[in-house]
Write a structure and sequence with these properties.
- It is a single chain.
- Helix 2 (about 35-45) runs parallel beside helix 7, helix 5 (about 100-120) packs antiparallel against helix 14 and helix 8 runs antiparallel to helix 15 (about 370-390).
- The chain is mostly helical.
- The strands form two sheets. It has a two-stranded antiparallel ribbon.
- It is built from 16 helices and four strands.
- It has one domain (about 40-430).
Amino acid sequence: MNFDFARIVSIETGIAAAIGAAIVLLLVKDLKYAVIPLAGLIFMGSLGSIGETETRFGRVSVTWLAPLQSLRTEAYIACGGLLFLAGLIHAGRLNIRSIALPALLFTLMGLFNSVANIYHLGASEGIISTVHAVLTLGSLAVVLPAIMTTLDDWYWVLRTFMFTMLIWMICTLIQVGINPNSITLGNQYRFIGLTGNPQHAGALMAMTCIITLWLWLNENHLRFKPLWMVMGAVSIVMLGWTGSRTGSLMFVTGAMFVLYSRVGRAILLLPLAGIAAYAFATILQNLGINLGLDRLSSTEDTRSVAWSNMLQVAINNPVLGAGTANSGNSENSYLYAAASYGALSFLLLISAVGTSFIYCIRLLKAKPILEKHFSKLCDLCCGIFVAFAVGAFFEGYAIARVSVMVVIFMIVAAMASRILEGVRWQIHTGNIPAAQDEHQDFYEEPSSKSA
């Protein structure tokens, strides 16, 4: 059957424009609808690039979402643009002082890297990269804190991530029905889902497991808990299936913080998750799908040579780096930043991660004076920050222009900043009641019950 390509493009463009117009109307109505373009950033950032390509893990096959994957950068920028527009429409609600310092430093790193691309890739590509950084990183840093005022806002941001990942999992299952070989890579059949390689899938599944675990333990609407339990079981199986030791380490470190304040009750719940995960894994094995879990116990060194290569490139190009195409490898975000964009990019990334650790210390210190739900959110923020830093030591996702990991970092940075802002307000006003109403505004007057 012959298709009119121009007609197809115009139809797709028209549909996209209609959806965009509907989202804009919602954004005009209420800034809280900014979670819609946020979901778009999460989903597009979780997709791998298109193409039948060879990697060191094996051949990556085209999925049924190839038309969308081919436009993932453009769609990612468009979602950032909608978030930027939301900020412009509701500029009166934005507060520069609410911007998280880790998010600000991350944005500055993105802007510097984009300017450096003028040298590496030419003026036009550098300008596009700069616009990309402003619309995505800049919008996330400025707009996200403004949509978090009540406890439900924090929960809905987390649910937005989870519902987006549910869609991602459903799309992956559809691909299984079409061609199951497309979701695995190499002779070990390591899971990649809709990402580009098993390491990216492992990092994504690790973050999903951490957030799912936290919601499973702390969700304030019980009707969602069965869903989180199922998604947690599926995520754990997918994480093991990737064979990613980095992803497993990220999950373990993040889960330690999530369970920090309630390990007693968690012990009673964890066997249920284990049983569910085992049942799901058994079903897959019975279907003839090799999960390749033996990769997790491997002691093979797959990083030291890559780190040595990137360090040498960074030493030889200390000012602006050699560009991502000439960095040698990407198996460490910190060295990848230095090799690709020079010492300043490295220092900004280290500073962003370092200030996130300072936020962790401040959040843990603030827990005793916070309402219990916000106290538990501190555990989640610390877990995500530490897991991100650990994963960045083995993967290069921190400087990727289209990255769901960066979106997650920016979300948690905004959460942490708003919690600490509320703590400062409580201390300043002396409004530190023993028990607080969890459904009130986090920043209400001292005469009211606040959360």
